[in-house]
Amino acid sequence: MGTLYSKKFNRSHRQRPEGKVARNLVKEIREENLMSKAELARKAGVSPLTIDRVEKGMNCRMETKRKIILALGYKLSDKHKIFPED
User: Fold this and answer.
1) Is 22 exposed, middle or buried (0-12, 13-18, 19+ CB in 10 A)?
2) With 80 as the cut, is the pLDDT of residue 15 above it?
3) Rounded alpha-carbon distances, angstroms, from residue 42 to 29, 76, 85
4) 44: containing domain
5) Which pTM was predicted?
6) How confident is the model at residue 78, as a pLDDT?
7) For position 42, which CATH number holds?
């Protein structure tokens, strides 16, 4: 029972306050480029699980966002096109 609670806490801890998720366009842009999650992860130097979490709106480090932006072929100055709520 403690394990379930811990998993539940960890999951909610990574999300935005009050259960809100961060809206981003990573999935849409990735799919427009006919790129799989695994391919984007490889190009960005992160795990496919990280890509999955980002696409679901979970928080991530600024460094991870930077890697994803560049892996999608954008400039860092285009951050708002991928992560509009930042």
Assistant:
1) middle
2) no
3) 16, 19, 25
4) 2-82
5) 0.75
6) 97
7) 1.10.260.40
